[in-house]
Amino acid sequence: MTNNDRRNFIAMALLAPFSVGTAVAAEQTGQPHSTHMYMPDSTVHWEGNEQIAMLIYPGMTIMDLIGPHCMLGSMMGAKIYLVSKSLAPVTSDAGVTIVPTATFETCPRDITVLFTPGGTDGTLAAAVDHDTLAFMADRGARAKYVTSVCSGSLILGAAGLLKGYKATSHWSCRNALAGFGAIPTDARVVRDRNRITGAGVTAGLDFGLTMVAELRSRFYAECTQLVSEYDPHPPFSAGSMKTAPAKVKADMVELLAGFTKKAEELAAASAKSGSGWND
Amino acid sequence: MTNNDRRNFIAMALLAPFSVGTAVAAEQTGQPHSTHMYMPDSTVHWEGNEQIAMLIYPGMTIMDLIGPHCMLGSMMGAKIYLVSKSLAPVTSDAGVTIVPTATFETCPRDITVLFTPGGTDGTLAAAVDHDTLAFMADRGARAKYVTSVCSGSLILGAAGLLKGYKATSHWSCRNALAGFGAIPTDARVVRDRNRITGAGVTAGLDFGLTMVAELRSRFYAECTQLVSEYDPHPPFSAGSMKTAPAKVKADMVELLAGFTKKAEELAAASAKSGSGWND
Fold first, then answer.
1. Which of B70, B107, B150, B173 is catalytic?
2. Quick check: ipTM above 0.90?
3. Of B119, B225, B251, which is closest to A16 when you measure between CB atoms?
4. A44-273 is classed CATH 3.40.50.880
5. Domain residue spans in chain A?
6. Dihedral sign, Cα of residue A164, residue A125, residue A80, residue B228
7. CA of A220: how far to CAs of A81, A109, A187, B242, in Å?
8. What is the pLDDT of residue A36?
């Protein structure tokens, strides 16, 4: 393998995730894509074959999806499915419309990672939608990892996938997870056996890197981190309930009070009806 | 205004950017949306009327777009246009397809913020595309702020918008900016008069918060930061050329060498042809 081959190989693996892009594009156009390439360095697992299903639904927060996608998309050979009820475009809470690549029916039955983003009203609607919960419960029962970012954990909980597991969520609805039988846990990324959940919105980047290290290696994740230049320098320190100024916290707690209440009602209804959606 | 009204008001302003979402959705469906609401607190500018044009093009890195959108989308009353050549869906380098909301023709002529995301081959193609450069040069000449994240600054440079300005980019192509007459500057977010540029990919979050503070206030930006729970905890420290392990750096510099070379050739050709695209 020449230096040029090696460069091209690594480029396909990591460069602004061409590898997954190629796989998805090939899937859509029906063109074949290469699945066998030589390893440039036998100590590094450059290629894998993960099947990753990312739920998308109307009203989701698109940053919850794209943060993890930015990291997971670097994995050479992995396939990412953006899964929805149908192939009709889906509009996020902030008005970004994206096109699904698979439906609940066409998504592979056995997947490596099941993931759901969060949101607010759209998430509460998805968390009581029969087809969505049936899909999540079915794939979640066999997936190697069951994961979420932000209030996406409400959907995992509603699908009966968090019973007895530590999990996190957006700060506004983390405590509600107890209603689903989960153990609310305050951390950026929470792992309990094969359940891996991230905190609110931007935690998807930390979650995504954690997953790349889990699925590939620390070295692979570090390469992904450098290519995505994930060296955060927030201009302010208001990103957590522990650090935000008092008035910021007070106003935002009030802002989200309605959502917090609805999330708790959702979880309480789940607790009342028994031990979960599909029991 | 009751507490409930106030809560609903703030919710519209900040909650997983309903405000912009509403504006975009209203635009698309032809339904009116409210532009006049009462302020809950006269010391806080909850509402504005910024017109924000975000360029989208095939092969862009979608995280470069969604990071800033996550923050800018919190601004009550602002309108965000996802602008492309046509309304045909646009697929990112990693295979995420999004639907534009405006074209080069329908995008307002006078805008508050002009923004472009980066990428690799797709960005190099956009940076030599006549229609794209004409759009950027036209809106950029009158925009209050001319901005980019990652290698998007190559497009600004190619459109003649960085001559004599300090600017940054992804580490792999930052030095190439000199060919466009810019002054390459190594920082997470670089401001020189009304040019504000962010470093690679995930720098879009820091860039976005900086813009919210600039357009609204520090308090507004801090509220946005708390709602998006932007309290980063990268599991590794490899996000910058200053901190990444030596082998990670060496492999990624090699990985991106082809792109670095092409970016330098693009800028050199621009320098050779005179002082910019539209001279």
1. B150
2. no
3. B119
4. yes
5. 1-40, 44-273
6. negative
7. 21, 27, 24, 18
8. 32
